[in-house]
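Q: I'm writing a short methods note and want an example of a predicted protein-small molecule complex. Could you take the sequence and the SMILES for adenosine-5'-diphosphate and return the bound structure as tokens? Please keep the output block clean; save any remarks for afterwards.
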Amino acid sequence: MVAIQVKGLRFTYPKQTEETIKSIDFSVEQGSIFGLLGPSGAGKSTTQKILTKLITDYQGEITFLGKDLRSYKKDFYEVVGVGFEMPIHFNKLTALENLKYFAALYKKNIDYIELLKKVGLYEARNQEVGTFSKGMKVRLNFVRALLNDPDVLFLDEPTNGLDPKNAKVMKDLILEYQKQGKTIIITTHLMGDVEQLCDQVVFMTKGKLSEMATPRELKIKYGKKEVKVEYDGHGVTSFQTFPLLGLGQNHEFIQLLQEQQVETIHSGETSLEEIFIKVTGETKYE
Amino acid sequence: MNSFLHLLKGEVLRLVRYKIIFFGILVSLIWVVLIYFLDAQTAKGFMPFLAMLDAGMMSVILLGATFFLEKQEGSIKTLLVSPVSLVQVLAAKVGSAIISAMISVVMVLGSGFVFHGIQTNFLLVFLYVFVIVLSHTAIGYVITLRSKDFMSMMMKFAGLSLLLMIPSFLYLLGVIEEQLNWLLLLSPMYAAQYLIQSIHSSADLLLIVGSTLYLALLGTFLYGKVVYPRFKEFAIGG
Ligand SMILES: Nc1ncnc2c1ncn2[C@@H]1O[C@H](COP(=O)(O)OP(=O)(O)O)[C@@H](O)[C@H]1O
Ligand SMILES: [Mg+2]
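A: Understood, no commentary inside the block.
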């Protein structure tokens, strides 16, 4: 089932002449993790603001859980969770005071104490948020986004500003949340996030979208279709590359395997980063 | 309603935590000292002006400071993705402004009673403070939504205040023709002062009712037509 269907979405900020979102189409399957990937300034956060009804004067059609997004009132936020990339808490209130305050606005709550423990903020719960580091604020934003146990969760750059350990914790929690049947939409400029999390991904550049695909499909489609064999050629490491197509019948390849001391074999792994450059025609990423 | 009360409680808690309310009380304390040193007659003439400063001007300054602080923190965004309506959010902000204005006005008018035995009907005061705060915070938001930061908002407000306070000064100087009084009441600041003053001194009932309705309608109109439609976009925008 489709959770979100976007058709011909366009948006221009007031006082701006150029469209920030230039007629994009995509759909998000229920229960999937959908990635909106692109360099900064591409329009990812703007798209998220539109999908979460913070921006309402867009053009185009957005269907959210079977109904026109525009028809939703404040109850929309009972089933939606929004994670922002910027800090969003009251600095002079403690983490726990902030969470309690927002939690009371919902009909349904998760066990946020438990989640505070999982993201490693439990010890800091009675500390004013103003004293938090950037990474702590990012993690608190995540807890805040999950407060109402949302069916559809939006996360804007959820791992940005986190050290590798905490980024890993965050990604595991996102995957765990998906297992409960939730739909998650992630915007990110980090290839790693997409590779490890997303079922579907689109590239966004300058307000436009590439085709939608799975990270794996992209790699198969755009990846180099060859293997590279490194072997010991009289004391120095030499290498040869062979096309993947008909590799089993490739005599040179088989001969090499039989006659040389093979050190490594790699299939051509194109990183998503290289694919991004190919797909979008951008010469440089970031 | 439940959400509104919860939002209001949060607004008041933040007034305290961000020490915004103490700033208001500090200013009122200065007025209290002033009233102590004035003789009864002068105090009676001056108190409505001071109460207008508190309920009218101070609430705009506190509102501007709070708004830009919350915008900078991003905390306003979190509220806007919660299951509360913008009407509830704005109502809670007006509610907390009324509470802090009442504290200041009660300090001013209360000290008039303590030092000079000037009696006050606080039920009427509450009604007047309600419409004064409603209209003045509406004006405050209209200015805020056109300013990039607190400083530029304050500059615009200072300019507007000078203009709107001309009637109050004219009144203090006693150079108003009786027949022209209603014209001066078009200045919300003067209307505010007139209402508070009507509690202690004789005043025209028609002008009292007119001023009350005028402030109530002005506030409702500005909130409905200017603040409400633009608030969300401005609060989340860059
Ligand atoms: N409030 C705003 N007003 C005008 N332009 C904006 C605003 N917010 C973002 N933009 C512009 O829109 C473009 C897309 O921004 P954004 O959606 O934040 O990109 P991303 O999240 O992909 O980094 C950028 O060029 C940015 O400068
Ligand atoms: Mg962004």
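A: Remarks, as requested: Residues 2-237 of chain B form one domain. Chain B has a mean pLDDT of 91.
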